[in-house]
Amino acid sequence: MAPERRPLIAGNWKMYKTRPETAAFCAAFLPLVAGVEGRDVVLCPPAVCLETALAATRGAGVGVGAQTMHFAAEGAYTGEIAPRMLAELGVSHVILGHSERRQYFAENDADLARKVRAALDAGFTPILCCGETLEEREAGRTEAKVGGQLDADLAEVDPAELPAVTVAYEPIWAIGTGRTATPETAQETVAFIRRRLRERFGAAADRVRILYGGSVKAANIDALMVQPDIDGVLVGGASLEAQEFARIVRFVEPA
Ligand code: 13P
Predict the structure, then answer these.
(1) To the nearest whole number, what is the mean pLDDT of the chain?
(2) Measuring from each residue's beta carbon to the nearest atom of ligand 1, which residues come in under 6 Å?
(3) Count of C-beta atoms within a 10 Å radius of residue 4
(4) Which of 119, 146, 169, 178 has the fewest C-beta atoms under 10 angstroms from its C-beta?
């Protein structure tokens, strides 16, 4: 975490919670984080709960983001949601390229380049996910994999726009496994990501927020946020429970 980058704590609810459960979460969570300053907080519920989350968080200083979107303005894409539909709701962020989307829904880098472009054009903050499998890490291919994803997915972004992008490093072997990357391992790859962005985009890379994701919980948040290049976290399972997520949001600022 560096002073020029405001920390971002985002909850990715994946395919959990109905509308009543979303409302109940917000009713429990918001009082627990009221008055917390110096950090951005974003909830990313399932698409059908976006409106409920937006209504429940209005005026509370908590953003709401989508978990995916299509790149086209509209069209014959059954089941998909267009950027302008999310914009009309009032969504501020959109997660793109989550490993579960890449793995189970065949989201590829060519589509992601268009999605990142569409997100910026719609005025959203894209939270672009990248990360390696355990096999890739053990084969020493972490940087090749992550670097390749970033090169491809940010192909349509200009240096001046880069600070509007947030990157989330999520090693696939740490997602939902309880096996968090150690803060040092996470820092190492996040620092690599920033170097890679600096090579291509120059000084704008120092203003990009880079998050860590993968088994983040109340017990490890403080150690992660102490790392110099980790500007926040993308939290799955631990963002579903109000007390636990509030403690993550209330991470202790390093002195
Ligand atoms: P967990 O926090 O459940 O490991 O999930 C991480 C993740 O995929 C967030 O996008």
Answers:
(1) 96
(2) 12, 98, 170, 175-176, 213-216, 234-238
(3) 8
(4) 178
